[in-house]
TrEMBL record:
Its cofactor is Mg(2+). It holds the Pfam family Trehalose_PPase. The keyword Metal-binding applies. It comes from Rhizobium oryzicola. The lineage of its organism: Bacteria, Pseudomonadati, Pseudomonadota, Alphaproteobacteria, Hyphomicrobiales. This is Trehalose 6-phosphate phosphatase. Keywords: Hydrolase, Magnesium, Metal-binding.
Length: 262
């Protein structure tokens, strides 16, 4: 152990798999909920340039099998993009920060954007079209404005997104993330998505282990803690509700691989 600090979880060494041990000891008692960006895959300069490590999909498939199918992805990405990233897997998944969901039986709750939201997305693209480095990511029922490659545009984007949010109305909320501002459906979050999975087979009756790296993951950390489960924050020390912190996506991938092949 390197350090203990209750405001950022118990900070673990890269090789410390202690919080994941229940997956090996009691695989029929636990369900695993995994964020994607910054957790399973390293962050990249743009949304489209992330790299899925060879073997990661095999690891996830094996873990899902070990857990009787009780493994779900919980991401800010749109479902089709996440599926494309992790093909050929088609795991249970919550997308758009919990607003859309594919259950273990394959049924999907999708988000269909209203015409006014489509107009809003086009307007954001127009307003920022000559802002070098700013990327507008159209996610169907949500939209993200990325400034990783143009940090000097953050203040202007804050203003543009605040105006867009007020135009979108009370059914939407602003989601802050790593070098990104998003407008997403307000009716769900990652905590409510985990709760919904746990009300269905094969997740029901199990305790959740929630793993993520960003502000959006705090809702599932809080839910997992309240449900008697475990929560793990990935990456540099941060103010988090998670009980544990692992230093990097690579440390997590290695730990998951060891558990999957044990
Ligand atoms: O909930 P997640 O699976 O972690 O998704 C959160 C957002 O991730 C993506 O943006 C982040 O990753 C990009 C690629 O590494 C990076 O360039 C960007 O700065 C990050 O904010 C994704 O593009 C968003 O749609 C997700 O909501």
């Amino acid at each position: 152990m390197e350090q203990t600090d209750t405001s950022r979880g118990e900070v673990l060494a890269a090789s410390d798999e202690q919080p994941l041990a229940p997956l090996l000891a009691e695989p029929d008692q636990w369900a695993l909920f995994l964020d994607i960006d910054g957790t399973l895959v390293d962050l990249a300069e743009t949304p489209d340039s992330v790299v899925v490590e060879p073997g990661l999909t095999d690891t996830l498939q094996a873990l899902s099998h070990r857990l009787g199918g009780a493994l779900a992805l919980v991401t800010g990405r749109a479902l089709p993009y996440a599926d494309q990233l992790l093909q050929p897997l088609a795991l249970p998944i919550a997308g758009l920060h919990g607003a859309e969901r594919r259950r273990a039986d394959g049924s999907v709750d999708a988000v269909t954007p209203e015409p006014s939201f489509v107009t809003l997305k086009r307007s954001l693209e127009r307003v920022t079209s000559d802002w070098d480095g700013v990327i507008i990511e159209d996610k169907g029922g949500a939209v993200a404005a990325h400034f990783r490659q143009a940090p000097e545009r953050q203040a202007s984007l804050e203003a543009v997104m605040a105006a867009a949010l007020s135009e979108a109305g009370p059914d939407y909320s602003l989601q802050r993330g790593k070098m990104v501002l998003e407008i997403r459906p307000a009716r769900a979050n990652k905590g409510s998505a985990v709760e919904a999975f746990l009300s269905e087979a094969p997740f029901s009756g199990r305790k959740p282990i929630a793993i993520g790296d960003d502000l959006t993951d705090e809702a599932m950390f809080r839910f997992a803690n309240e449900a008697g489960g475990l929560s793990i924050h990935i990456g540099e020390a941060a103010d988090t509700a998670a009980q544990f912190t692992l230093p990097s996506p690579d440390a997590l991938r290695q730990a998951l691989r060891r558990i999957a092949t044990e």
